[in-house]
Each structure stands twice: as C-alpha cells, then as structure tokens.
C-alpha cells in the first residue's frame, strides 16, 4: 500500500491550533499590502504567520476566486514568443504578477490581425481579469471593442492613442541614433523602418527623420523602407535599399536589433564591411548585439521594467483606479559598428 499523505493545511487547521476564529486567520493571511495592521493585533499577526510558515500553509486559489469573483488570471498577447526583447517584457510581467498572486497566460499572435482577435477572444473566454497587449496596432480597432466589453487592459511595448501604455520613449531613441550619426558626419543615411502599423517602428523612424530634418537633411524616398521586424525582414529591406541606389549609404539605422542583424547579412553579401565601409545601428540592445564580430551600436530599452510597470498599472485598474501612460527613457549604447566607419565626402 502507498503512503497516506498528510491532509492539507487549511485556514481551519490554523484557527483551531491558535484558538482563533477562522475569519481572523483569513484576514491576516489574505490582507492586501498596507492593510495587514487592520486585520488583527500585531501579536496575533505574528502568531498566525509563524504557524502558517511552520505548517506550510498555501492559499487555495479556487476558493479565493469564488470569494472575490476573480480568476486571478492575466492574459498577455505578444507578436512573437521567440523575440528576446518581448521575452524580457514577459519576464517583468510574470515577476510582478507573482508578487500579487496573479497567474499569466502568454500567447503569440504573430502580428496577424485575425490571430490577434482570436487570441483575445480566447482570453476573454477564459474569464481573465485583465489583458496586457504587447502587439497593439495604431488604429486601435480591436482595443475599442475590448474596452466596450469592460475588460481592463494595458498596452506594453507599443502604444495606441487613448489607451494606457507603458513603452520606451521610442521617438527619443530614434533621435539619439540620428544625433550620434550626425556627430560622426554621416549625411547619406538609410532607415529600415519596420512595420507601418506599429508605434515602435513609427516613432523610432520619425525621431530619426526629425533629427536629420532639424539638421537640414531630408532623406530621399529611396533611403527609407518598411519591413518585418525580424532578421529576414531587415535583410530583404537592406537589399532593396542597395538595389535602388547607385551607391550604398554611409550609415543604416534599423529600428530593431533583429532587423539590424539582417541588414548586416545583406551588406556582407554585397562585400560591404560593417564598421569599415558603412555604419549600422539598431534598437533594443539584445544580448547578441555586443557579441557580433563587429559589436552593434544600439538603443537600450528598459524592457523588464516596461513589463513590471505594465502589470502594476493593470493591477491598479483591477482595483478600480485610474492610470496614465508611461514612457521610459532609453539609453544609447555606442559600439564599433558605428565608431569605426567613416562617412564619405
């Protein structure tokens, strides 16, 4: 015969051991941060917590859900689970969620509108308490529908007008790259701009273009192209840029590190040496950026913090509060991919 396991430790177990009413024990162990002192006296709080730790008490999430009418589930929608930048955001979300007794359901939408809608509907069918969108598009049509249905949500990574979002200040990041390249004397530059429906690509490219415009330099149309945010997109976009001109630019700005990596591959295919013949800059400061044969100049975005703050804002909405969007300041990380390449006269 197998061993008989010990019965689970319940609120009743603790109450009987301590000679307290079950409701008193429950108030102590389930009080929100800052409310514990109103649950019982300090001595009682210490006794309850000490015994709960000794006996290994764990709250029953199903019972809690029934009491509060909450599922304690948060859905997180991101374009790609394989993206290291998005993975850092998700880690921040999960870390902050765990601290608040929440669980997360993370799913990929591949940036496909029909799949985004299907994943959102699936989340709503799971009766999640709220949603964090990491794949919002600027038109905000789906978000308007979710808002009308009363489910709280927050955006991370990307913004859409009128909805609370936590993002890097992508516009400022784009200007940082432009100011750096202008300082090195690069006037013939190209932009691999990402998707036109995502605020990340829009804001980063616009910040870059505005800085050049302020310097009296307007980029010609053949030096600007949209593409997917990944390596393949960056490779194809850079190849197009090279095909559309008689000579390559002296510098390329790609709005993600992945697209920058693709750009490096396209340049290599043409025998153009990054860091010597041409400067290349990215955005994101992914782990591989510093490990490339020619380390990549890029913009560091506080992705982990973005995830944490996004969950914190959602928590405030779930408590019935009001929140405002946050834009976190980026940091330019300068490496050899731009410092060694000299602009052409």
TrEMBL record:
Residues 9-68 form the HTH lacI-type domain. One of its GO terms (molecular function) is transcription cis-regulatory region binding. It comes from the Bacteria. The keyword Methyltransferase does not apply. The keyword Kinase does not apply. PROSITE patterns: HTH_LACI_2, SIGMA54_1, SIGMA54_3. Keywords: DNA-binding, Transcription, Transcription regulation. PANTHER family: HTH-TYPE TRANSCRIPTIONAL REGULATOR GALS, LACI-RELATED TRANSCRIPTIONAL REPRESSOR. This is Transcriptional regulator. It comes from Saccharomonospora marina XMU15.
